[in-house]
Specification:
It is a single chain. By secondary structure, the chain is an alpha+beta fold. Helix content is 35%, strand content 28%. The protein has one domain. The protein is elongated, with a radius of gyration of 19 Å. The mean pLDDT is 79.
Length: 114
């Protein structure tokens, strides 16, 4: 659904609430930026270690990546470290959507609060 950037966050939540038949204030809006961020501390773990430790770290990393994917996170292993997709939760308020997101179009995921 296309929504003008001049709408405020409350209006977007009201539209999403109507679409999914849930109260608007129980909704989280998450902007999927499409950008990748490095995971802090990953390169430090791979610094100075032996081959046996590297195998253990690779196994641990595989388990962590599977766990992150289970929680719906998009994770990628690139040369130089581990990267995750940047997601920003849009805070409730009267701020216009255009001030919260960059570009002409944005992908916003609708989630219910736990």
């Amino acid at each position: 659904t296309e929504i003008p950037k001049s709408f405020d966050v409350y209006a977007v939540k009201a539209i999403a609430g109507r679409m999914f038949a849930v109260p608007p204030l129980t909704i989280r809006l998450v902007w999927e930026t499409g950008e990748w961020d490095p995971v802090g501390g990953f390169d430090e773990e791979l610094g100075d270690s032996s081959d046996e430790e590297d195998e253990g770290l690779e196994a641990d990393l595989a388990v962590e990546i599977e766990a992150a994917k289970g929680f719906g996170e998009d994770v990628e292993l690139r040369k130089g470290g581990r990267w995750v997709k940047r997601e920003v939760e849009l805070a409730d308020g009267p701020r216009q959507l255009g001030f919260c997101v960059d570009g002409l179009s944005a992908r916003i995921r609708v989630e219910t609060r736990q």
